[in-house]
Amino acid sequence: MSASLQWGGRFAAPPDAALIAFGSSLEDDLPLAPFDVRCSLAHVEALEGGGAIGAQYADALRAALAQVADEVRDGSFAAWARALGAEDVHGAIDARVRELAPEAGAYLHAGRSRNDQVATTLALYARDRAERGARHALAIARTLCSAANDEAAAGTLLAATTHWQPAQPVLLAFWLAAATEPFVRAAQRFTAARKAASATCPLGSAAVAGSTIPLARERSAAFLGFAAPSRNAMDAIGTRDAALDVAHAFVRAVLDASRVAEEIVLWAAPAFGYVRIGDATATGSSLMPQKRNPDALELVRGGASELVGLYGGALSSLAGLALSYHRDLQQTKRLCVLAIERGVAILDAFARAIADVTFVREAMNARAADGYAVATDIADALILRGCSAREAHALVGERVRRAEEEGRALDTGDLAALASAIGVPALEAPLDAAASVSAKATVGSTSPDAVRASLAELASEIAALEARL
């Protein structure tokens, strides 16, 4: 254990092994390992560029770090670090470099603290996962948009609901477009978070006050793809904005996925029968042979609560924390990484599951006007003939009540009665779902023309966001 520690000279006795284990973040840090190697390579650039080490040591460090990178990829580094009992992944990488290149390795941490090392590594990790999140969001958006185009061509109808009660008929393509929109926004949030994470590089800030060792910070920042070195060491080591921004983007994207998943889960029930979930996604029961369970979508739905809790914990860990570095930030890091890794997994699962859903058009079309869903169209027709909104609402509500009592749908007799009530010879209004959808006249509505226009815009936005990745 002592070989992995990056401190200890001022202590006369060894640390309590149980307390070191209590404070260890190795398991939580392992997803950061490839980014920490990259961070260390950048620090070699800063040391060599500033003249703190010569080319021979720099080359030896690069060779050792290249080997560590290989070991991270093949999984042997994680096993080595666990056997070492490393305090964290950052110290483990430093210890492995010292083992591979003892003389040069002793200089790797010159002018660097774990404070700026962790902040930089976490920013690199956040930037990478932001891009991954954007790709997942865009894959979901493209799947939904493609399905919307298919259903628009088929003219599939759907009884839209509010409060889970029948509301108005819409095109299924309209619902699919509504499901697509949040994932386009999610991709925009991920893209913005990635850009923010690339703005300034903490590396070279050292513990809190900067370093007296000459470091070529511009060189290390450029090596890592940052726009510039950070301008205040105390702020740079204590902020976790990059990780929080990306975690937030995942929370929002997973919340969006959970809402779509909720409807698909309900629609898959025989009571609706609107969708069939494919064999690759559905699961069975250990007891009931007939079951086709939408488990993956239920786990997406439940995962949203998990991410909200993790993100809330990360925010809470910062509450009241003074500037600079405090060990509480280890908890912030842990919770952000957990939220981000779970977010990646949930979006990947959702993308796979949503692509395996088939819409049962006949069932949707058959029930698109259920629950007196054309009542609003009839009220609108009254308003267009001079009724006030309140009078039209009351008159149509009375006709709905009567039709419900008689066990029938609204029909031409109701239109005739309403025409008589307002003193006009006849009243024309949609009485079926297709006519209702076609009657819509506003931008952003469920009319076929409006839906086609929105889908074209969505496809263009998706392509533009994909081109930026």
Q: What is this entry, summarized?
A:
The protein has helices at 17-23, 26-29, 33-49, 55-74, 76-84, 89-100, 102-105, 114-154, 172-197, 217-223, 233-238, 241-268, 295-318, 328-354, 361-366, 375-384, 389-406, 412-422, 433-439, 448-467, and strands spanning 157-162, 165-171, 200-201, 228-229, 275-277, 357-359. With 469 residues, it is mainly alpha-helical.
**Principal-axis shape:** elongated
Distance between the termini: 42 Å
The radius of gyration over CA amounts to: 30 Å
User: Ranges with pLDDT <50 over ≥5 residues?
Assistant: none
Protein architecture, described:
With 469 residues, the chain is mostly helical. The chain is built from 20 helices and six strands. It has helices at 17-23, 26-29, 33-49, 55-74, 76-84, 89-100, 102-105, 114-154, 172-197, 217-223, 233-238, 241-268, 295-318, 328-354, 361-366, 375-384, 389-406, 412-422, 433-439, 448-467, and strands at residues 157-162, 165-171, 200-201, 228-229, 275-277, 357-359. The strands form three sheets. It has a two-stranded antiparallel ribbon with strand order 1-2. Strands 3-4 form a two-stranded parallel sheet. The protein has a two-stranded antiparallel sheet with strand order 5-6. The longest helix is centred in the first third of the chain and has 41 residues, at 114-154. The protein folds into three domains: 14-110, Fumarase C, Chain B, domain 1; 127-205 and 227-366, Fumarase C, Chain A, domain 2, CATH 1.20.200; 375-453.
List the helices and strands and how they pair.
Elements: H1 17-23, H2 26-29, H3 33-49, H4 55-74, H5 76-84, H6 89-100, H7 102-105, H8 114-154, E1 157-162, E2 165-171, H9 172-197, E3 200-201, H10 217-223, E4 228-229, H11 233-238, H12 241-268, E5 275-277, H13 295-318, H14 328-354, E6 357-359, H15 361-366, H16 375-384, H17 389-406, H18 412-422, H19 433-439, H20 448-467
Parallel strand pairs: 3-4
Antiparallel strand pairs: 1-2, 5-6
Helix pairs in contact: 3-4, 3-8, 3-10, 4-6, 8-9, 8-12, 8-14, 8-20, 9-12, 9-20, 12-13, 12-14, 13-14, 16-17
